Write a sequence for this structure.
């Protein structure tokens, strides 16, 4: 286990890292590096038709990689940072491998001091749970599976996380794609 500076350097070098969020541990890679993103899919055994979100330190940074509408930006300002993934139009530099060829990408701004410290040093980073697809999410580093542990160059310990998944929202369709924290407030905001 090591610190955020080492993790940021690993991300810059194209390596994978495991980092804590306010929900579960995430598996991070440079979200703009197709090879690094490919290794995330391989480590997780994830179907490449299932997109992966990206994490950034704040909403302003999100707009460097995405093109939210005024309503989407208003929603992002209201709910981020927080346990919410907002699906918005991606900009050209976001690789198709991340979004499974779609023109939209999920954006996370985790409400976790360690994650935000990492993202201030290096962003955007893939935002997907640090587990093999189909297995349970990881709430502490001791529970990290060997496959993910072996794939990651750096493990950032943030202690135990609360668990659960982020609430995934498509503001343009006024739709909650996956229920999670703040779902009631989000439904109220969307209506």
């Amino acid at each position: 286990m090591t610190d955020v500076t080492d993790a940021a350097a690993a991300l810059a070098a194209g390596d994978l890292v495991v980092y804590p969020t306010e929900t579960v541990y995430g598996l991070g890679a440079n979200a703009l590096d197709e090879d690094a993103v490919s290794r995330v899919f391989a480590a997780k055994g994830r179907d490449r038709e299932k997109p992966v979100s990206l994490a950034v330190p704040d909403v302003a940074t999100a707009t460097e990689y995405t093109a939210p509408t005024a309503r989407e930006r208003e929603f992002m300002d209201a709910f981020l940072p927080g346990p919410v993934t907002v699906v918005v139009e991606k900009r050209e530099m976001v690789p198709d491998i991340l979004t499974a060829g779609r023109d939209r990408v999920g954006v996370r701004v985790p409400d976790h001091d360690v994650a935000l410290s990492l993202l201030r040093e290096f962003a955007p980073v893939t935002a997907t749970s640090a587990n093999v697809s189909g297995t349970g999410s990881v709430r502490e580093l001791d529970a990290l599976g060997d496959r993910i542990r072996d794939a990651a160059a750096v493990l950032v310990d943030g202690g135990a996380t609360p668990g659960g998944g982020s609430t995934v929202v498509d503001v343009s369709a006024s739709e909650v794609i996956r229920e999670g924290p703040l779902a009631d407030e989000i439904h109220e905001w969307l209506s």
About this structure: The helical segments are 4-12, 34-44, 59-65, 70-79, 96-99, 113-121, 146-151, 183-190. Residues 4-190 form a domain with the DHBP synthase fold (CATH 3.90.870.10). The chain has a mean pLDDT of 96. Strands lie at 16-19, 26-28, 53-55, 84-89, 104-108, 125-129, 152-155, 167-170, 175-178.
